[in-house]
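CORE FACILITY INTAKE
Project code: CF-77B
Contact: R.S. (postdoc)
Sample description: multi-component assembly, two entities in total
Requested service: structural model of the whole complex
Turnaround: standard
Below are the sequence entries exactly as provided by the requester. Do not edit them.
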Amino acid sequence: DGGITQSPKYLFRKEGQNVTLSCEQNLNHDAMYWYRQDPGQGLRLIYYSQIVNDFQKGDIAEGYSVSREKKESFPLTVTSAQKNPTAFYLCASSPDRGRGNYGYTFGSGTRLTVV
Amino acid sequence: RKEVEQDPGPFNVPEGATVAFNCTYSNSASQSFFWYRQDCRKEPKLLMSVYSSGNEDGRFTAQLNRASQYISLLIRDSKLSDSATYLCVVNGRDDKIIFGKGTRLHILP
């Protein structure tokens, strides 16, 4: 079945460490997104990519980095510069290069906790 | 005015009742509208798109009011399993997708 796979489901990070969250899709979607959700809050856009080898900053990109070397994959690195990384991270994709006409498909998320 | 606004709730509704909630948006040029459902500690899932003429999917009805710039979701004969947070999604300026913060719905037995 087609879908988006995020791993790991739970991730614990020590202060000062970089960690990478995986996002893989087999939907053949052009556009991919990373969102962050804090308890009781809405989704905030971190980075997005509408095509391979290209990506743009979202509303809260500081302390994060991404790459888009393959259409299927859009990993997110949470760097030590991100001061408050504990959150629920959601990866999404859409078929129409971000025009939003078809809605988004989400992965099941990664819950990151700083210890 | 916020780009997308929703009443956060919670709406506490007895099982079997009808419940409706609205979502207002600020960009009059928006063309795509959706309702998503998010269960506690899970990812959002597309519930339904919202079409200009309104649309229905079983117990769920979605409507768009362009003049007043809001969309609505109506749930009839509510079930315990309808308890969730409902997210309004609109494409805003530059086709950027904007998520509302959601409306929490609790169906009471």
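Facility notes:
- The two ends of chain A are 35 Å apart (CA to CA).
- The CA atoms of residues 1 and 26 of chain A lie 9 Å apart.
Invoice: internal transfer
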